[in-house]
Design goal:
Elements (H helix, E strand, L loop, with lengths): L1 H22 L7 H8 L1 E6 L2 E2 L3 E3 L5 E2 L1 H13 L2 E6 L5 H6 L5 E6 L3 H4 L3 E2 L8 E6 L17 E4 L3 H11 L8 E4 L2 H10 L4 E5 H8 L4 E7 L7 E4 L4 H17 L1 H8 L3
Parallel strand pairs: 1-5, 1-6, 9-10, 9-11
Antiparallel strand pairs: 2-3, 3-4, 6-13, 7-13, 8-11, 8-12
Length: about 260
């Protein structure tokens, strides 16, 4: 009877500890220690963001960001546990402890920095305006887009920029369509439902292989690039990720990813 009672308490304690890890990493003050002890780095991403994060024919997560986070985890001595979600849910997932990091071609914009911290920039890509392949639309200035109907992916820097144009009275809200996923965004452009997309060059190049579209303007809305989102108040965890990124840059690993994924 005593053995059964003891076994019951051991199982209960294990379940409680597992629940704390799964539901809220904040139950432990040092996330770096938690990740090393469990040997699992919980990663949030959005798998419709080729070439950064997408799934291959075997349903495996692949892409620039997936290669990068796996290498970071390897150097931390952990495995990765990847959770797929919409892009605009990633910051909240980090903030609430559902994942330890989020990586998906994400820029460290000021609005996000109020909720989470960010690693150093590991890549900087251009923003683009995209039109149908046979479109006669010409863009000479970043604000020339105000005369057209525009599609943006929710939660992205391009969406923020276009929203600022609307808030400034330079565009009407009715001109802008917001999409949770990238594929319907590009399909609506091809079908003529919208005239332009404000997006990122890497993702657009992938869709150019599949759809009759073209880039009509290149810019950088905020001069930002790609960063890894981490929880606030985890300085040791953030410092370790930045240390590894420095290492990967010096070794040429990041440059090799640029070449591999054509970004």
């Amino acid at each position: 009877m005593k053995i059964c009672t003891r076994l019951f308490f051991l199982i209960t304690a294990a379940l409680v500890l597992t629940g704390c890890r799964d539901s809220n990493q904040g139950q432990r003050s040092n996330l770096l220690e938690t990740v090393r002890d469990t040997k699992i780095l919980r990663v949030g991403t959005s798998s419709d963001s080729a070439p950064w994060s997408f799934k291959d024919e075997q349903d495996n997560f692949v892409g620039y960001d997936m290669d990068l986070i796996r290498e970071i985890a390897k150097r931390m001595g952990t495995e990765v546990q990847i959770t797929d979600m919409s892009f605009d849910a990633l910051v909240a997932a980090v903030q609430t402890g559902k994942v330890d990091v989020a990586i998906c071609s994400m820029g460290a914009k000021e609005e996000r920095k109020k909720l989470v911290d960010f690693s150093q920039m590991y890549h900087q890509q251009l923003n683009v305006y995209v039109a149908q392949q046979d479109s006669a639309i010409t863009i000479n200035n970043v604000e020339d887009i105000v005369g057209y109907t525009v599609g943006v992916q929710s939660g992205t820097l391009p969406e923020q920029y276009i929203t600022e144009l609307v808030d400034a009275g330079k565009m009407k809200d009715s001109q802008v369509s917001h999409y949770e996923k990238a594929e319907p965004l590009y399909l609506d452009l091809v079908s003529g439902r919208i005239q332009l997309i404000a997006g990122d060059i890497g993702q657009t190049r992938e869709f150019m292989k599949l759809q009759p579209i073209k880039i009509v303007y290149e810019t950088s809305f905020y001069g930002t690039g790609e960063n890894i989102a981490v929880p606030k108040n985890q300085p040791e965890f953030l410092a370790e990720i930045d240390r590894i990124l420095d290492e990967l840059r010096t070794e040429g690993f990041l440059a090799s990813l640029d070449a591999k994924w054509d970004v």
